[in-house]
Structure formats: structure tokens, C-alpha cells
Amino acid sequence: MTAKAEEARKRLIVALDVDTAEQAESLARQLSPWAGMFKVGMQLFYSAGPDVVKRLKDQGLKVFLDLKLHDIPNTVAQAARALTGLGADILNVHAAGGLSMMRAAGQAVAERAAQLRIPAPMVIAVTVLTSIDQTVFNREMGQPGEVQERVMAWARLTQEAGLAGVVASPRETGLIREACGPDFAVVTPGIRPAWSLSGDQRRVLSPAEALALGSSYLVVGRPITAAANPEEAARKVLAEMTGGC
Predict the structure, then answer these.
(1) Residue limits of the Orotidine 5'-phosphate decarboxylase domain (predicted)?
(2) pTM tops 0.85, yes or no
């Protein structure tokens, strides 16, 4: 693998949206040469339990724990504290919970990691889900204005709270990068390779387009994991990320 391909591999997160730890471990083993991190979301976490994170970590894999914590500050802080002990590399909250909630989560994670003498996971905040388009945002959610305005407001609030970055559509990556600087992480789901269907995602871009706008990490799920040959699909995503090199 070339240096350029290896750098791209580190930035590719594959979403393990399956029901069992065995399925997740099998996919992760198969795809680890092509992906730098694996996402454990609600489906897998609620089906297989917290131990699935430890099992993946025991394989030497990096894990993004995507549970989108959102509640009152104390509840989220205690949940984040508990999750820190699982050893995930990234975990997230929802920016809609507000400044105090995000600050409480970040502080709880840092304190618990120090107590356990382990590296603290990067804490990031979800902005507007990539399945929400302008019509849904205005008519169904009753939110005024443009989607990107809300994304930007939450990105700035996340940075003010001291968190490391956000989850956002690749369509907002460039604006976030301009507003929050080069060191603020932008994790982008809604990545759809040229050869795949968008499914229930609305605000999508290709891997190459997202990287060009400044995405730190790309999250890809079904285009890889639901493919007839997941390894081949992962290789094709990497090829798009590196311009075919």
C-alpha cells in the first residue's frame, strides 16, 4: 500500500451496522487492511452490549462509539464517564443538548480517563443528521432558516464547549473548516461513492469531494458492508479517496 493509500485508510471509518458481536468481528477482521477505524452505533451496541467495544479493541482496532448522547448535563456526563472505560477512540454527544451538556461530557471523559490512566477518547458532537434535508428541517422539525446555518451554529458551540470536533454532512465541511480552523475534527457520514445508491441519506458527497473540502474522517457503511464483496468495495472507496492511486 502506498503512503497516500495508507493515509486514506487511517481516515476511513466503516460503520458496523450489524446485530451481533460475531458479525462485527468478522467484518472488522476482513476490512481492517482497508479501514483505519470501525463505528459501533446504536444497532450493534444495543444488540450486542458494551462488551463489543472491548472485543474490537482487543483485536487492536480503533473504535468510534456513535451513541449521540443527549440528555441533561449530569446524565450525559455520567454516561460519558461510564463509556470512557470501554476504551473507544472517539465517542459523541448531540450538540442540541447545549453548551453545559457538552462541557460536562468533555470534562467527565477527561477525568475518568485520567483516573483509569488510559488515553482519553476524542469527544465530538453531532450536528444535523445527514438524512435531514431542507424540507424536513423546515416543515417537519419546525426549524427556521437553512440547515447549514444550524450546523454552523452548533459547530461553533461545540468548539466553545472545548470538544474536539463535530459530525456533519460533507456539504458543510468547508464552512466548518473556515469557521473552526484546521485542528477541529470534522467527521462526515453521508459519504456515497460514485457507484453506490444514496439510500436514506440526503446531504451526500463522494469520498473525493468530502476530502477536498477538508473532512477529517469519512464514515461509510452500507456501500461497503452490504456489498457482495465488502473487501472489494472498501478498496474501491480507498481508490476514490486517493484519486485512483
Answers:
(1) 11-237
(2) yes
